[in-house]
Amino acid sequence: MKNLFDIENPVWVFMGKLVDLLILSGLWVICSLPVVTIGASTAALYYVTLKLANNEEGYTVRSFFRAFKDNLIPGIPMGIGALAAGVFLSCDLYAYYHIDGQMGVILLWASIVLTAVYLMTLVWLFPLMARCRTDWKHLLVMSFVMSIKNFGWTLLMIVSAVCLFALGLFVSAPLLVIAIGGTAYIHSKILNLVWKDYNLGLTR
């Protein structure tokens, strides 16, 4: 019974993590509402989850807003660019899917390949932005190279995100309230593991 009220009890640690992920999901949604700030809010989300996944406890809300402020200026063009690319590729996939003939098939497959590269790069981009102080060109190159060199982990991150949101949509709706923070946390667990093999010069 004594262990039940111990803050180090695995049950309370787990519940604490869930509360943190719930708070982070809400903060991400609120700070992304202006749309132009989606890059900064995503980087801030990963800044906190990378620490949580590494058992570096801290003040969740304070850490999020500090990271949000630090990434606001570089995050605006990065976020808008990523969002615009996603919308462009989605429109291409829709348009080429409805084109008949061989040319339509070729264009559709070309768009599928580009979308795959986009998604692979995206899952690394904002976590790296949260941890590295460098310009957007180096971030894009690093994200692309790491996504290719660690293809298995990259695929796992994409699949885990899809599965978590699918579970929320089709199995248990309450999962959706932590889906954003939960996805970032799962990714952060993987990234912390992978980054041990890299000398990234992480500065944050």
Compact description:
The chain has seven helices and no strands. It is an all-alpha fold.
Question: Describe it for me?
Answer:
The structure is a single chain. The chain has helices at 10-32, 38-53, 60-97, 102-131, 136-149, 151-170, 176-195. With 204 residues, the protein is mainly alpha-helical. It starts with 9 loop residues before the first helix and ends in a 9-residue tail after the last helix.
SSE blueprint and pairings:
Layout: H1 10-32, H2 38-53, H3 60-97, H4 102-131, H5 136-149, H6 151-170, H7 176-195
Helix pairs in contact: 1-2, 1-7, 2-3, 2-4, 2-7, 3-4, 4-5, 4-6, 6-7
Features:
single chain, about 200 residues, mainly alpha, about 80% helix, globular
* Morphology call: globular
* Radius of gyration, taken over Cα atoms and rounded to an integer in Å: 18 Å
Number of strands: 0
* Strand percentage: under 5%
Considering DSSP H and I runs of 4 or more, what fraction of the residues is helical? Answer: over 70%
